Predict the 3D structure of the following.
Amino acid sequence: MKTIIQKFSVPFRYPVCFTHGVFDPSNPALASLLPPQSSGHARVLAVVDAGLADATPKLLRQIEAYFHAHRNTLNLVRPPLLVPGGENAKNGWGNVREIMTAAGLEHLDRHSYVLAVGGGSVLDMAGFATSLVHRGLRFIRIPTTVLAQNDAGVGVKNGMNEGGIKNFAGTFAPPFAVINDFGFLKTLPQQEWIGGVSEAFKVAIIKDKPFFRYLCKHAVSLRNRDQAVMEKVVEKTARLHLSHIASSGDPFEFGSARPLDFGHWAAHRLELLSNFTLGHGPAVSIGLALDSTYAMLKGMISPDERAQIVKGLSDCGLPVWSPLLERTNSAGDPDVLAGLEQFREHLGGKLCVTLPDPIGTKREVHSMNLALIKKSIAVLKEGFVS
């Protein structure tokens, strides 16, 4: 047998910008990121979260006005394409196919751009569609929620839900650029405003103890919609996520460890059990509370540290308990436990769950004691159900 070992590296580089008023014609952020093609214009298909458009009635006109103001270098190939927001954006192939069809009808090529404006689910789905057309068009994300700006919108993952499994289909495809416009956060409903803070707690608990202390100190300010504090939290969380992607040695997740999925094995299952009426951010908060309780019972964090975590989440207005944790299957076991095997299957290889050990550091464990998980559920219920 003769074997040729092929090996090469592909460097990835993309900007993550923070600004206000991205579609103000005087703001150069977007126009400066889009080098024109040989035709003299950067050809762009805009995809917009319909829920965002409803909440911001002038948005579509602002997008078209921006491209008109920069018509010497930018070409909006058609009016913005509206797609459903929220988790429904990711369910099934319908929206993916619609974006791919629009890209084909407008004859976009690998030097053309898809610009997605919306929450994390829309960005995930639109990025997946974009990565499939001609094996990848240039994708620009403009995240408009806290969760999308500090986590989902700055990374390298794209995906959709299929067959009742979250993110069953997807790709690793870094964006061409990300623009975080803090102005979009001001119009968010309270649940979406605070939901993304759970991802800040997640990364702080396992990576940055001073940031965890900052979050706990400013939890009430965050709940009360302090814009300045939220902007600091979003930027810091985004930096921590980007640093992990760049320095972990596994940006495309070929291994089994997923530190940035701390709390997520239960969160993903709770989302499914709720039929996605429980948002990702609140579900992650409950997952963090559950896994932190488990870590305390294992002696990895102290009772005081666990109390700080639960109090910090609660003070922000995030949930730390759901009756879904008690829902049982036909064998009488908590249905949330099925999330462990689904998590392992999604990651591939052996189970690998990240836990704090102590706050500010982490440990990967490859098995979870089911009796101890059940006890963790009971401890959570005892503290938060009267």
Remarks:
- The first helix runs from residue 29 to 33.
- The chain has a mean pLDDT of 93.
- The chain is about 45% helix and 15% strand.
- The two ends are 69 Å apart (CA to CA).
